[in-house]
Amino acid sequence: MTHDEIEAIAALDALGAATPEEARAMSAHVASCDSCRRARDEYAEAATMLVTSLDPVPPPATLRERIRNAAVAAAGPAAFRRRDGGVPAGGTPALRFLVIRSELHVDCTQNHQRAR
Known about the structure:
The chain is an all-alpha fold. The chain folds into 2 domains: 3-53, no CATH class; 63-115, no CATH class. It has 5 helices and no strands. The longest helix has 23 residues, at 93-115. It is elongated.
């Protein structure tokens, strides 16, 4: 791969859009290339600055319920029951993680769409 291709992959990687193969190729290349390593680090810093500078946008009120319903449909209701048979008020830690991650994705997507 050329340096230009590696730098393009570095930009994608900073946004979480590089494929696993591209990320592996970039990692192998930047291990021995200072200029591409600097570019990768600069893209990562810029992406971090962009994300941290955005104001949070509350997700739609129905999002949490839609995510929970989709998770229950995918994993089955038994996956969300406590050992004593009850359902945890906030769901399992894995479900809470998925809800939070989905809310962050919606926040970033909405901010990106508004910025256009």
